[in-house]
Amino acid sequence: MANMNHKPSKYMLNLLHVLSPFVEEKNDIVNVIVEINTGTINKYEIITESGQLKLDRVGYSSLAYPFAYGAIPQTWDYDGDPLDVEIVNVIEPLVPGCLVEARIIGVMKFEDAGEIDDKIIAVLADDRRSDHLKSIDDLGEQFKKETLYFWEHIKYLKKPGTGIPKGFFDKEEAIKVIKDCERRYKDIYLKKFE
Q1: Mean pLDDT, rounded, of the chain
Q2: Does residue 75 lie in a domain region?
Q3: Which end of the chain has a smaller Cβ tally under 10 Å, C or N?
Q4: What is the rounded distance in angstroms from the CA atom of residue 58 to the CA atom of residue 173?
Q5: What is the rounded CA–CA span in Å between residue 34 and residue 95?
């Protein structure tokens, strides 16, 4: 897990920039750096430039995250951040800042205040309790309703109507989104440092 082709360093490595998005060339398992745990109203984000975890904001309501949440290394979404991942069906809380391998099951297309901000949906790759989850449909209609409700209302008290879910899509579409964000990371984010 997380073997890096990087020489030892006396400085802390920023995993957002040294890990590849996909694990060992498997096209449906990605590296994810956990930012938020299930059940919190706090919004944590990894500082892209340094790799530290920062409290971005305290939620504006009592609406808590119904899933663990993180970012895929070496990706860049249209909103100017690494690509987001919802990690569902997590039994034991994950430690924010830890690295997990997650198996992709789909994507929810999403618009946040006019910007594309898609959400990859995945399960922990090595959790046998999730082996039966192959697609978003396997999560059931209640998962879809709760997820849509969460994203439509998470910022409602601050900016009503700015969270607009655009639907759920299959694993193949999710992989396409990740690869597009991987190209954008190389073409846009890294070019700023040349």
Answers
A1: 92
A2: yes
A3: C
A4: 32
A5: 7
